[in-house]
Design a protein that fits this description.
Radius of gyration: 20 Å
Oligomer: single chain
Number of helices: 4
Helix content: 10-25%
Shape: globular
Strand order of the largest sheet: 1-2-8-5-4-3
């Protein structure tokens, strides 16, 4: 019954919007890059990014604080064999998330993580295809993001792929991007 009332309410809202000429102003959402880096407040010299502008990849990869590229050993999580480190961002609350790119297909990378992690994960978006594997317990009081491995298809809808942030590097674009959010060190020592 509630479903029918919701459908009726939606139909009435669409009809009313059409009558008022508002329907022509409604646009579908503009696809956004995922994950989006934290936004810095605009300074007079900077122009704020608007949703209609495409987000660009970072200018250069950012190694970890000690200058090394993260590995399976430092992250405590498996990495697809052909992943290339792109950059990392502070996720807050002592967490970082790490971005890796590969020319392998989305389906191959997801199949690899299903096998290695021995879990199905969850397809969180169908378009663009985004699959998430939770790899640790989320503690809302101590974490900004759940520990996870998220795989996203950057060839969806005819896109050429995620641009390689290294100038003139090969490959020029990555078909698939993997975001890794490891269990924070403080949380892993707290479990012991």
């Amino acid at each position: 019954m509630k479903r029918h009332l919701s459908a009726l309410a939606l139909a009435l809202a669409v009809l009313l919007a059409g009558r008022l000429g508002l329907a022509a102003q409604v646009r579908p959402p503009v696809p956004q890059a995922y994950p989006r880096p934290p936004q810095q407040p605009a300074t007079p010299a900077q122009k704020p990014t608007t949703p209609a502008e495409p987000l660009q990849a970072p200018a250069s990869p950012a190694p970890q604080a000690d200058g090394t590229v993260p590995s399976e050993a430092t992250l405590g999580l498996p990495l697809y064999p052909t992943l290339e480190f792109l950059t990392s961002y502070d996720a807050g609350r002592g967490q970082r998330f790490y971005l890796f790119g590969t020319t392998a297909s989305f389906a191959d990378v997801v199949a690899y993580y299903k096998s290695v992690l021995k879990q199905r994960g969850e397809l969180v978006f169908e378009e663009p295809a985004t699959h998430m594997f939770e790899v640790g317990r989320f503690r809302e009081d101590a974490m900004g993001f759940p520990p996870s491995i998220t795989v996203k298809d950057y060839t969806w809808g005819g896109l050429e792929g995620y641009p390689n942030p290294k100038p003139n590097a090969e490959p020029a674009r990555f078909a698939t991007v993997v975001q890794v959010v490891p269990v924070p060190a403080a949380a892993s020592t707290a479990r012991r």
